[in-house]
Design a protein that fits this description.
alpha/beta; Nitrilase/N-carbamoyl-D-aminoacid amidohydrolase
Length: 295
């Protein structure tokens, strides 16, 4: 299939009174996206951390245990939702416990019951030092009826080698669930997402969180985001490489159609072809060795 309708979510961190309210809110968002014709919904990183607001403040270790206890419920909810609405859902990311420790996993749920998982590969200093999370060690290339795609979670999008590796293996779409709590973090992720779209001549879908929670919650207290769907900045797309964006820091979604025939047209007839024109032999280098005493 050449065209994919995608809804990327600006999920609001707001006051909730119960776990039931949390799940009902997700169902409402999925339903609205399906009503507008979306075939894929992309929720943000650390979305289930919203549940931490139902409890007194916890340490990071306690928070990991608390969230991991929701894993079965999380999986069941999105499996049922994907099947019921006939829609593919990236259920944001969720902290769960695996053999080596706690990980930050993104799960992609398909209506036929298939689930693909991508563990975050590059951890921020906070995730390493405060959360004590364990990084993943492989990129999962995911087959879909729209072609190959990969998941680059938040900080992962800031490493061009990862996106290039995905593109070289046939990916034409990167999904980037993110959580950034400031404009600084957001624009790092946003600009890198657009750079990856230009460098590799593919689509990038970015989701994130907005809003705020009461002070004292250590893990997820506020979000800054403008979700978006990005393309190369070249023919036959717009000069800015933006297919759609949401309203800055407002709850909602950005909907866009990804036409993969147009993407192929860009790769074949664009003014420039950075994916094909790269020269790997130029980029190899040997570390410079300085002798003791040299200036």
């Amino acid at each position: 299939m050449n065209v994919l309708s995608v809804a990327t979510i600006q999920y609001e961190l707001t006051f909730i009174e119960s776990e039931e309210q949390f799940w009902k809110g997700l169902t409402s968002t999925i339903s609205k996206a399906a009503e507008q014709g979306a075939e894929l919904v992309v929720f943000p990183e650390y979305m289930t951390a919203h549940l931490l607001s139902l409890k007194p403040a916890m340490s990071h270790k306690e928070a990991c245990h608390y969230l991991s206890n929701y894993t079965a419920k999380y999986m069941n909810f999105f499996l049922q939702s994907s099947r019921a609405f006939g829609i593919t859902i990236l259920g944001g990311t969720h902290i769960c416990h695996e053999e080596d420790g706690f990980v930050n996993n993104a799960y992609l749920f398909f209506p036929d019951g298939r689930v693909e998982v991508q563990t975050k590969l590059h951890l921020t200093p906070e995730e390493r030092n405060s959360w004590s999370l364990v990084a993943g060690d492989r990129l999962n290339m995911i087959e879909s009826k729209w072609g190959k795609l990969a998941i680059t979670t938040c900080y992962d999008i800031e490493f061009p080698e990862l996106a290039r590796m995905a593109a070289e293996q046939g990916a034409q779409l990167l999904l980037c669930p993110s959580y950034t709590d400031s404009a600084f973090g957001y624009y790092r992720v946003r600009h890198c997402a657009q750079a990856r779209a230009i460098e590799n001549q593919l689509f990038v879908v970015l989701s994130g969180m907005v809003g705020s929670l009461p002070e004292g919650l250590l893990q997820v207290d506020q979000g800054y985001c403008q979700a978006g769907v990005f393309s190369p900045c070249d023919y036959p797309f717009s000069e800015q490489g933006i297919l759609q964006v949401g309203v800055v820091n407002e709850s909602g979604m950005a909907l866009a159609e990804l036409d993969f025939a147009m993407l192929q047209e860009n790769r074949e007839h664009g003014v420039v072809a950075p994916f094909y024109d790269r020269r790997p032999s130029l980029y190899q280098y040997e570390p410079v060795k300085l002798l003791l005493g040299e200036c």
